[in-house]
Amino acid sequence: MILVNRIRSLVAANITEQREEDSRAYFDRLILGDCVKMMRKMPAACVDFVLTDPPYVAHYKDRSGRQIQNDDNAEWIYPAFREAFRVLKDDAFCLSFYGWNKVDSFFAAWKESGFRPVGHFTWVKRYRSSVGFTQACHECAYLLVKGRPEKPSNPPPDVLSWQYSGNKLHPTQKPVTALTPLIEAYTQPGDLILDPFGGSGSTAVAARHCNRHYVLFEIDESYFNAAKFRLLTGSRN
User: Fold this and answer.
1) pTM for this predicted structure
2) Could you read off the pLDDT of 191-234 as tens digits, one per residue?
3) Which residues, in sequence order, are CB contacts of 100 under 8 Å at separation 6+?
4) What sign does the dihedral 138-184-97-213 (CA atoms) show?
5) Domains defined for the chain, CATH in brackets
6) CA distance 45 to 26
């Protein structure tokens, strides 16, 4: 029995070592391409945290005419989060922004993928993004888990302030200041953070600022180039 346990320990140690090696292969990488196809090439359980701002399925177009690929359909939601769940390590977190009017599609995909919701964040804006039946003055995201991670020692409040990014590089560019508290709370220095919908690279900038590693995928070459420029120039915003 002692020998069996020793063999099991060695096998487990080898698996852990291999996974760490697999993770290092993705350290600090920005990759142009479809995130579902790209994640399928990744080994299982190789990232420590998923932090992403996917299309809201809102058919959004800003004042200058900029749009977001795949913002006109929901077919990608389940395949993307199924792969995100697979590549995320056990007992770890995923933070995803979402379109409030498509919450049923996102929630169904998250649960079917295996994620479990444990929290919800709201960022309050001092300005209105749009005016319809209401004035849009907030952003929101769900905190999801794979397995049963330990609670953070100092979790952030679920209502936070929002600093306008200016949307100079992307029509829905998230401010780095909104992402850093999440990274600091749900990861450790040296961890690998995945953003399947990398946009203009805010997650990577925030990760680097927090001494974490990142791997980002982005399908639109113009936004990919904007993210690449931010990282090459050492941007902190």
Assistant:
1) 0.90
2) 999 999 999 999 999 999 999 999 999 999 999 999 999 999 99
3) 140
4) positive
5) 2-232 (3.40.50.150)
6) 12
